[in-house]
TrEMBL record, chain A:
PROSITE patterns: ABC_TM1. This is Carbohydrate ABC transporter permease. It comes from Streptomyces synnematoformans. Its main location: membrane. Pfam families: BPD_transp_1 (PF00528). Keywords: Cell membrane, Membrane, Transmembrane, Transmembrane helix, Transport.
UniProtKB/TrEMBL annotation, chain B:
Residues 7-16 have a biased composition (Low complexity). It comes from Streptomyces synnematoformans. It comes from the Bacteria. This is Sugar ABC transporter permease. It is found in: Cell membrane. It is a multi-pass membrane protein. The chain crosses the membrane at residues 44-65, 105-129, 141-164, 194-215, 253-274, 300-322. Pfam families: BPD_transp_1. Keywords: Cell membrane, Membrane, Transmembrane, Transmembrane helix, Transport. CDD domains: TM_PBP2. Residues 101-321 form the ABC transmembrane type-1 domain. Gene3D superfamilies: MetI-like (1.10.3720.10). Residues 23-34 have a biased composition (Basic residues).
Length: 273, 333
């Protein structure tokens, strides 16, 4: 590898990376343009100044604060509940080594792989029967279970390698299984549990099909659903589309920056998704 | 993934050792020594109970129902009418259904084949050139750029691209006009001959970061001595890529290809947002086709049959993927 060949390769990679982030740059540039400036100068010019009325108009028109809150509430609850459910199941499988373990594990993995299309209609129908249709609770319940399929699979394999001596020592000291779980296993597995919570939060935040079907009223919709529906109806003008894109991109970038370390560790762990 | 999971397991084990846990002390109590407090607390299987119940209600019952619905004619209200295999019979003769699966193959190319091939080259270029000569900060920044689209909600990515690809004053057409290539301006998403390719291009952009990150973590596993030996023997970068990197990454490549293929079969959000399956069904995919039958045409039975076929296909691939992953794990220890 000579120095002569190193720079063209580096340049090509930087160019490729620039192409990947270019759409984000264009969105940012245009979200601060006024409609007049947009129609006279087009999407490629640098903005003359910062015009934020388009953003605030859009924010108020779709009640974006409410959408953000719905997304935070749903994704946060799912991250927490799905981790608890995963920990309980994985404790039985990974540490308890219950009988038929490989089959139970295979079941969880296949459940994780199931396309939501084959669940969506019965869930839609059953939730209507149960009076849960168009509630955030219904979406929280469904995704808690869906995400915990992956969590159970991953945690089981991690807990399978848990040092047995630690557990036996605690048991000999008189700890119950329940105490061993919360005072030994959970604190020791904190790194993995942290990765899982971040992945669950972001996956749930990004979910589209089930929330689209389940959350029909404006007050319950998540960011993804609200923006997706607006776009699907094709009744946004260019400025509005831009505002929508920017407001949708910003939380994702924020999570990415906040969780980057956890994520890069987690992506590899979460390869299954 | 094999390697990363082992890594997480090691994390946990290290944390256990570091916290001064008895594992370091190297003693063992004789098991018969003391009675264990097992009598009152029940077995480990109890901890599986909440998960099992939740799965029964949210996954198993709906799945069985959906399969059941696929043998009926049902608008969603009233009583489903049992029709046996009629829906499947209709599927076989439905040109729209076959077309949607042909589009799935296009999605497999865009989301599995191309990203895997490009991801391999990118990952080893980042690892070999940038990692060794420009430093790990560059690697981290460049990797983050390629990975960014992966964290974006698919609906938001769809909005960004439908605006860029808009026929009137969309950025792409404006850009082509600005550099004098007006002749190449197109209605990227509205032209039936072009729309599928546009959607495919967007999916490549969305997907590329995933194989990249997996392959980069796989490359850390490869013994540098292999590369050094090949380099000493006078092998250039491409030859080392073919004869060292590729064979070493085989488990990762297999797993990435299969997972991405499954993801490609499930594509829904991007089609919903970008084209709505149009124009004239030119970008319809099975999951969107099922959605239309469920919620737009009120033919729940037919929608259920489509999703059952899709599920069967995915489960077969999933079982293959699992088998391969277990084998890869065994090989890696």
């Amino acid at each position: 590898m000579t120095a002569v060949r190193k720079y063209p390769v580096l340049a090509a990679l930087v160019l490729g990376a620039a192409f990947m982030v270019l759409p984000f740059v264009v969105v940012l540039m245009n979200a601060v343009k006024s409609p007049e400036e947009y129609s006279s100068d087009g999407p490629l010019s640098m903005p003359d100044g910062v015009y934020l009325d388009g953003l605030t108009d859009f924010w108020e028109r779709v009640d974006f604060g409410q959408k953000l809150w719905n997304s935070v509430l749903i994704s946060g609850s799912v991250a927490l509940l799905a981790v608890v459910l995963s920990v309980l199941s994985a404790y039985a499988i990974g540490i308890g080594r219950i009988r038929g373990r490989p089959y139970v594990l295979a079941f969880f993995v296949l459940a994780n792989m199931l396309p939501q299309e084959s669940l969506v209609y019965p869930i839609y129908y059953l939730s209507k029967e149960a009076g849960l249709y168009d509630t955030r609770l219904s979406v929280v319940i469904v995704f808690t279970v869906v995400q915990s399929a992956f969590g159970t699979y991953l945690l089981s394999s991690v807990l399978g390698g848990f040092p047995r001596e630690v557990i036996e020592a605690a048991r000999i000291d008189g700890a119950t299984k329940w105490q061993v779980l919360w005072r030994v296993v959970v604190p020791v597995s904190r790194p993995t549990i942290g990765v899982l919570m971040v992945l669950f939060f972001i996956w749930t935040w990004n979910e589209f099909l089930l929330p689209l079907v389940m959350l029909v009223s404006d007050d319950n919709q998540t960011v993804s659903v609200a923006l997706g529906v607006l776009q699907g109806q094709r009744d946004m003008d260019a400025t509005m589309t831009n505002a929508a894109a920017l407001l949708g991109v910003l939380p994702a970038i924020a999570f990415f920056l906040i969780f980057q370390r956890t994520l890069t560790r987690g992506i590899a762990v979460g390869a299954v998704k | 993934m094999s390697a990363p999971v082992t890594g997480a397991a090691k994390d946990a084990a290290r944390a256990a050792g570091g916290s001064g846990a008895p594992s370091r002390r190297r003693w063992r109590k004789s098991r018969a020594g003391r009675p264990r407090p097992t009598s009152t607390e029940g077995s480990y299987a109890l901890y599986l109970l909440p998960g099992a119940l939740a799965f029964l209600v949210v996954i198993i019952v709906p799945f069985v129902m959906n399969t059941g619905i696929s043998f009926t004619e049902w608008s969603g209200v009233g009583t489903p009418e049992f029709t046996g295999l009629e829906n499947y019979d209709r599927l076989v003769g439905d040109e729209d259904f076959w077309e949607s699966f042909r589009h799935s193959l296009a999605m497999v190319a865009a989301m599995a084949l191309v990203p895997t091939a490009v991801g391999l080259v990118l990952a080893s270029a980042l690892f070999d050139f940038v990692g060794r000569h420009a430093g790990s900060r560059w690697v981290a920044v460049l990797r983050a750029c390629f990975y960014l689209p992966q964290v974006l909600p698919i609906a938001v990515a769809g909005i960004v691209w439908s605006w860029i690809l808009a026929p009137e004053s969309g950025s792409l057409n404006e850009l082509l006009g600005a550099v004098g290539l007006d002749a190449l301006q197109q209605d990227w998403l509205g032209d039936p001959d072009l729309a599928l390719y546009s959607v495919m291009a967007v999916m490549v952009w969305v997907q590329i970061g995933f194989p990249l990150v997996i392959f980069m973590s796989g490359l850390q596993r490869v013994d540098p001595a292999l590369h050094e030996a090949a380099e000493l023997d006078g092998a250039g970068w491409w030859r080392r890529f073919w004869h060292v990197t590729l064979p070493q990454l085989r488990p990762e490549i297999a797993v990435v290809l299969l997972w991405c293929t499954i993801a490609a079969l499930k594509v829904f959000g991007m089609v919903y947002v970008l084209t709505g399956g149009g124009p004239g069904g030119a970008t319809n995919v099975p999951s969107y086709f099922a959605y239309q039958n469920f919620f737009e045409n009120f033919q729940a039975g037919y929608g259920a049959a489509i999703s059952t076929v899709l599920t069967a296909l995915i489960l077969v691939l999933a079982v293959v993927a699992l088998k391969m992953q277990t084998r890869a794990e065994d090989e890696n220890g």
